[in-house]
Amino acid sequence: MKPTANISSIVDLQAIIDVMPTPVFVKNRAHRIVLLNAAAAEFFGHSPEVLLGFSDFDLFPAEEAEIFHAADDRVFAAGEVNKNEEQVTDASGTTRTVITRKRRVRLDGEDYLVAIISDVTAYREAEAHSRYLAFHDTLTGLPNRALFSERIDQALLRHDRSEIPFSVMYIDLDRFKEVNDTYGHQAGDALIQEFAHRLAGIVRASDTVCRLGGDEFAILLMDHRKASDIERICRRILAAAAEPFTVEGGRAFVSASIGIADADTAASSVEMQRRADVALYQAKREGRARFCRFTNALDKQISHNRRLEADLRQSLATGTGLEVYYQPLVEASEGTLAGMEALIRWHHPEFGLLQPGDFVPVAEESGLIVPMGHWVLEQACTMMARWPDVPLAVNFSPMQLREDRLVSEILKILKKTGLIPARLQLEVTESAVLETNPKVQTNLKALRAAGIKIVLDDFGTGYSSLTHLQKFDVDKVKIDKSFVQDTGNDHFAIVHAITGLARVLGIPVTAEGVETKAQRNMLQSIGCTELQGFLYSQPMNAKDTEDYLVRARKLIRAA
């Protein structure tokens, strides 16, 4: 269509642009509107009749109008299509994001500016929300792992340039699963939100608090030059976690474990977080509710433990390397054999013969204690079934006691090996007996009901000891060797009190770690019923145990 010789001819385009849903308007060289469609009139908030002749200064705040006026001048000068994204205030006073496309056209020697407006406010808001979700946790609003990693990268760059110190902290809530199990996931979410709020109140605005997921948090501490500063923050976090949380249904209690990694010019974001995780792992191993700082020595120890875990998994899968040893329990007054305790050993291909203390903690942390305990029980029952008059003691960990099929599996092994239930003694720790997990209590009661004996192992090392001895439903108490080997007045008094109370309750007492005749005589004098230790025999492999059992038909008081 050829341009006409008169601007009034442009009005013939009104019918065309009115059907367009996008705002369209035309300005003359004086920056006044000479033509617009219905969509533009709606966007500007006036009728078309009012808008004709309006300039930017009639439509927008002066500051915005000056910007638009200058931009239009550049379009008039260049003549090319200009595309620009900008913020404008609409008729209702709302700031909107628009993309304007403008071009100069020339009709009958006059310049005009044709503009098309695309409102992209909703799109940009959705885009910003998606960007926010990509870098923030939806439950707490805190930065997530992706944003946290970016901030560590930035901190590392600053550290490389200016040696600005920083630290990464990993925080994990202890016993959080119990909150979910007791009060429900909604209460758990409320606790997470409240803890996030408490963390944010502890650190500075220049620091970053992040939620990694679940009950795991992280903090990037910037420019903390003293170790004491970080330790002070850790103590505040531990105190904040220990404060009760009000949740629907009651008050919940948790604690926190913290791992700390300090800035290192050789570290990456991934490495910094790995180190913090290693330190956190150690804090949990040391008993939780504490903080631990990463060191190279700690890293080597953790790597060693992971190596042990992998090798132990292989040994269990192939049935090689593990071996059951046996150590006798001796009747205190007569010196005759009272039973045999099964003790696991591991012939590691590189590290040699390992004692339980070298690998059992690794097995417990990895969950391998369950299949390993099953293997030990079956091996020991098979061995001792050939000696029908000798009781068998086997250690069981708290993790094993939580297993749903524990009772049925033990009874299956007894039936398979021919060992009668009354000969089996399961040694469990004081903390295991005190566990609030209902499955533990159910299993212990079912095992006793089946005729299996329950022995309270390492007694005296727990926090309850004598206070709870009357409440324990056990068949025997075993005094920890630390009390036997240190015969100072305090320890002697504790052993004396334990044996005295157990005698009143009719519970036999075994003392372990007996190495000298003096210890034996002392323990006999205060009423211990059974003794165990190197004075009588070290743990023996299966062959030596067979030989020992043959000789044990006779008294061994000469020891």
Model description:
- The protein has 559 residues and is an alpha/beta fold.
- Helices cover 46% and strands 23% of the residues.
- Helix 8 packs antiparallel against helix 9 (185-202).
- The protein starts with 13 loop residues before the first helix and ends in an 8-residue tail after the last helix.
Q: Look at the structure and give the CATH class of the largest domain.
A: Alpha Beta
Structural class: alpha/beta
Low-pLDDT stretches are 1-8, 555-559
What is the averaged pLDDT score? 88
- Strand % is 15-25%
CATH architecture of the largest domain: Alpha-Beta Barrel
Measured between the Cα atoms of the first and last residue, the distance is 120 Å
The number of strands is 21
What's the CATH topology name of the largest domain? TIM Barrel
User: Which value, in Å, is the CA radius of gyration?
Assistant: 39 Å
Spatial order of the strands forming the largest sheet: 13-14-16-17-18-19-20-21
Largest sheet: 8 strands, mixed, barrel
Task: Estimate the helix proportion, in percent.
Answer: 40-55%
